[in-house]
From TrEMBL:
Binding positions (uracil): I194, G199, D200, A201
PANTHER family: ADENINE PHOSPHORIBOSYLTRANSFERASE, URACIL PHOSPHORIBOSYLTRANSFERASE, CHLOROPLASTIC
Substrates-to-products reaction catalysed: UMP + diphosphate = 5-phospho-alpha-D-ribose 1-diphosphate + uracil
Broadest EC class assigned to this enzyme: transferase
Organism: Ammoniphilus oxalaticus
Protein name per Swiss-Prot or TrEMBL: Uracil phosphoribosyltransferase
């Protein structure tokens, strides 16, 4: 079973409160999501392997560490996932970004892939699948399945808020994928919204309704 990490850093929790607040307008919402994404990126990359190199300082040479081996790929799920990319990139600007677009078939209610554009070497990257809201888990599950089909071998799922139902689904279908969230909320309502949640993440990020 994959691990579940809840980021309880005070700055993340503080900012999340204002993200949830319905009085927070589009500009501030976007900025806050950006800031939380940067903080989550810091935490999510905590286990990146290091290697020792030699560096010449103005005083002498010494051994020091740099990030080794695997490179990162960010895979936002359209459209709300896009809102968490820039914050992550401000910390790790060299990460490549792929996109997955999914919609829910109104008859089968199953997610259908309508867009997929990935870095060519996803098999050699640690992929961070990004979706602010892990609700039913349908989109995240389908996105991870789509990435595995194209050769992805190592993935992490990063969300702002998760419902227990979504966590359960992803963990059941993809036990190899660790999940990173800022909060786990109570439940889903009858429309699939997370309660208490923050409303529609895409609409709040992009000012649509
Ligand atoms: N997607 C959202 O944007 N919000 C929810 O509460 C659930 C899914």
């Amino acid at each position: 079973m994959g691990n579940l990490y809840i980021f309880d850093h005070p700055l993340i929790q503080h900012k999340l409160t204002y993200i949830r607040d319905k009085q927070t307008g589009t500009k501030e919402f976007r900025e806050l999501v950006d800031e939380v994404s940067l903080l989550m990126a810091y935490e999510i990359t905590r286990d990146l392997p290091l290697q020792e190199v030699e560096v010449e300082t103005p005083v002498t040479t010494c051994k020091s560490k740099v990030i080794a081996g695997k490179k990162l790929g960010l895979i936002p799920i359209l459209r709300a996932g896009i809102g968490m990319v820039d914050g992550f990139l401000s910390l790790i600007p060299s990460a490549k970004v792929g996109h997955v677009g999914l919609y829910r078939d109104p008859e089968t209610l199953q997610p259908v892939e309508y867009y997929l554009k990935l870095p060519s070497d996803i098999q050699d990257r640690v992929l961070i699948v990004i979706d602010p809201m892990l609700a039913t888990g349908g989109s995240a599950e389908a996105a991870i399945t789509a990435l595995k089909k194209r050769g992805a071998r190592q993935m992490k799922l990063m969300c702002l808020i998760a419902a227990p139902e979504g966590i359960e689904k992803v963990r059941a279908e993809h036990p190899d994928v660790d999940i990173y969230v800022a909060a786990i909320d109570q439940q889903l309502d009858e429309h699939g919204y997370i309660v208490p949640g923050l409303g529609d993440a895409g609409d709040r990020l992009f000012g649509t309704k």
